Amino acid sequence: MPQLIASVEGVEIKHVYLQKDRTTLGRSPDNDIVFDNMVVSSRHCVFELKGLADVYIEDLRSTNGTYINGQMVRRQKLRDGEVIAIGNFRIQFLEATEKPSGFGETMAFQLESAKPTHAVFQVLSGSSAGLEMPVVKAVTTFGKPGVSVVAVSHRRDGYYVAWLDGTSRPTLNGDTIGEDPVMLSNHDVLELAGNRMLFRME
């Protein structure tokens, strides 16, 4: 089954299997794939599934365009392994022949087998102080869209945080998080949209 793997700055944020004849991508919440970012048009592009694995991408006259290998595309057939660029989003197309029983569960099992850990963020400030939010998925997002959003990814060698979106840059232990993912250490303090959160690994 064909699939799309979306990432920002090397951090995977979404994994989608193309099962419908038409799968739309855009900023508007009624799309099949939603990227809440101003570089993405409300209806940006569409993926059309023909037969079992032939997939065509069509740009829906987006403002900032859809690119493959640095070239703006209008409509073309996707080849296995090609990477689509929309702003700072990267979407890899894979011609998978079958869908795993559960991608998230499989990924989590592999990661935990390599390095068994349990990670949580504990809110230190505001009305939610004391609240604990577990990091259980391969990629977990935190924050408020349009203000500040980060993605925390669980990789084989540990946990990484990356800034995804928003006008307010998050900080880690007082240092601004830049364009590249930063590895998290036990008891790091993440400040996100005015909220301070303690990262713990157990």
TrEMBL record:
Q: Which Pfam families match?
A: FHA
Where do the FHA domain residues begin and end?
Answer: 23-73
Q: Name the chain's protein.
A: FHA domain-containing protein
